[in-house]
UniProtKB/TrEMBL annotation:
Naturally occurring in which organism (per UniProt): Fontibacillus solani
CDD domains with a match to the protein in the record: GGDEF
Keyword Transmembrane on entry: yes
Transmembrane regions listed in the UniProt entry: 206-225, 269-289, 301-319, 325-347, 354-376, 382-399
Lineage start: Bacteria, Bacillati, Bacillota, Bacilli, Bacillales
Protein name as annotated: Diguanylate cyclase (GGDEF)-like protein
PROSITE patterns: GGDEF (PS50887), PROKAR_LIPOPROTEIN (PS51257)
Ranges where the GGDEF domain occurs: 483-620
Amino acid sequence: MRHHLLIVFLLFVLSGCMVQSTNSSYHPEAVAGVIDVTGIQGGQHKLAELNGEWSFYWNQLLDPADIEAGRGELSGYIDMPSNWEKYKLNGEELPGKGYATFVLNMQISEINRVKALSIPKIYSNYKLWINGQLEAASGVVGTDSASSVPQKITQIIYFSSNTNQVQLVLQISNYHDLRGGLWDPLVYGTASAVSMKQDHHLAERGLLIGVLALSGIYHLGISMFRKKDLSMLYFGLFCLNDALRNLLIDEVLITKYFPHFPWALAMRMEYISLYMEFVLLALFTLHLFPKQASKKFTKAALAIAGIYVIVTLIFQAEVYIRFLIFYQIFMLVGLLYALIVFIRAALHREDGAMYALIGLLIFETVVAFDLLKYIFRYSERSIYSIGIVLFIICFSFVLSKKLSKAFNTTEQLANELTELNEGLDWKVHERTLVIEESRKQLIELNRQLQEWSMADGLTGAANRRHFDEYLGNHLMLAIEDQSPISLLLIDIDYFKRYNDSYGHIQGDRCLQAVVNAIKTSFPPSDGLVARYGGEEFAVVLPGYSADQAKDIAEKVCDLVKQLRISHENSKVADVITVSVGVATVYLKEDKEYTKLIKLADNHLYKAKSLGRNQVCAQSEIDYAVESSV
């Protein structure tokens, strides 16, 4: 019992650590399209949600010039954030599909000071003007489904105004989602306050995804060695599925890495991951507590989720979103079912049942809070991320306890065996020798693992991971020291023909010989040789000038030819040869190292196009372009 109380206390402390210190806010309300946010001033961390009455122009796409000229016909004022289908025009509710313009006039303080707007997901595309300047867009706003292109992103817009009046003009169209308009409010504040809030959100989401991904990979790894215990497998898949889902919701982190990620694909992935989350939880529960769980319920969950997946894949978002409410009801029933299973398991004193019950109660609590937030349109931050992390921790304890029990059983059997053979000194001595040998093997294995983690297993050159780390670190050093850095990309000419003619075993030997030749072309302490891909290798030479790098490249070509490895099917020589692309840069500020790689790759391509078996180094024009980056 004491252990359970300790776990609860630790989870409480952890949840307190994870709750971010949100920026203070106040709550002005827009009236007749005007909102006073002069309470936000520099040096403060106040934020204001732009809620209240926005001017509303239904089925009109107006830009700031149209508004100024009075060309639009005001439909009325709409409470934001809101989906326009809740707005009644001439006594009738508006359809989910359509387009509209929203206008809000803001009264601000401190002119010419940088302010910011945090823009949430908007259904399903938009354009935003601030004081007549187009500042943000998502997708393509259109007047029908053919001209409208949806996109699902979040943005922060920084702006300044030379007057105390700021006009926001927001065009929104929706022909792909079930509803159109805003669900979450635009948030206004100083640049530092909005950025800080965004950083907190991204850090929280990144931590959550990291915890889920690592937990998923860890438990999947364990399941590979404990194939009879499927609870590890399903829990690992649950964590990875939830990590994927968290890339697609709230801040939509996947669009931070892939800005043009297809909207339809993102929506389908989001909903299918929701269906799978429940199915994997049901499968996990069945294999964790098989005596208390129901196979029939699990099969029903699989069947229902399968139907929803098929519907989501076949139909458009406006169709499958309509049926989500029924799945949510089934999920609530499923959560109640899981609660009953875990209570029964706890009453029967199943291993880890108490931890599982605590984790499920935490999870169901945060689901209830988020459901209340959804129903009552409560706009504060969701506590889902805290709940899911605590849920993962609790169930990790459950599975750890199962493993611990297995280890304890193994230890107990070993102890009993030792006691049984206590009088046999020669066996004890023999066992001691075996253990000592195992320890030495373990030390050697750890040493090999350390080497393998940074080296290519075939050639002994650095692997791609080591190459990326080495190049990134030395690019930073080159910026600090204002020194050059050179990169050689080396490709074995017609290596596929070589493999086809001489076989893959001989091809592997050829790769090893070429790497050894490359390594002898410069002092080992001067740079790094890495296997970049297949028959392609990279050489990083920190501090080497363009001429020095070219000399090394020429030397590599000569050394490879001197190997005299026969290659009858080569179009350039009767022995193995290489083509080399060389790039050298001086960087004045931090840039993506892919630009250096791209430059070297361009020269490698040029060397190949000029007939191969040669070096192509950058020209003075290339150098000038790259050094001005």
